[in-house]
Amino acid sequence: MVEIIPSILTKSYEDLKNKVALVRGTAGVVQVDICDGVFVPSITWPFNSPSRRDALFLENNLDEHFRKILNEEEGMPFWEDVDFEIDLLVADAVENFDIYTKLGPKKIVFHLEAVGKLEEFKNFLEGMDNYIRDAIDIGVAMNPSTPLGQIYPLVSCVDFVQFMGNDREGYQGAGIELDEKVYEKIKSFREEYVDIPIAVDIGVNEETAPRLVEAGATKLIIGSAIFNADDIIEKIEEFKNL
Questions:
Q1: What is the pLDDT of residue 51?
Q2: Do residues 4 and 218 touch, judged by C-beta distance below 8 A?
Q3: Could you give the CA distance from residue 167 to residue 143 in angstroms, rounded to a whole number?
Q4: DSSP 156
């Protein structure tokens, strides 16, 4: 059975809490997109405003709940019932990795286009603390326009890969369609690596999901197709039964 993970892209902690509440009990994992206004134009929780890359974590740019989480005074909403996967659509994922881990995620996604030189990023992954690697699954995502071969040197260092359905990252909605190139990229990657989990994010809906699974995807990250449904629980079950 394919794994279905609701995707949450939100500007506020309250909206995050409300959306997690809608799927807890049905989805064991949710993905939270964190956008910094630097790597991608959009800005999401926990950041309050666009900022320089070196000033994202100034106190006046952070949501109060995020500050409490960092100080271990609070946790992610419903963390007892749901595991969190943090998708780092940010320019500082490597240098501020330790800060993002304080959200308590079970999985973290880096973006190939945001991590700088691949050899240095590979060294970072290989040098990651064993305690972190045992506690958190690490994934790497790539855009449709990025040559597939760029991800191959990193496969041995990650637990899963994530194919983005469109280069327009940091947005959700019916207007953002899945790039047709993604199907062939997944198929080609699956032919090279038969066992590694493959996730897809952006453009996943009732029409594209079966083709993605047929191409080799094992995990579907779904935002608007779930949260815009009349019956969210039923929609998740429909996707699970593909």
A1: 62
A2: no
A3: 5
A4: G
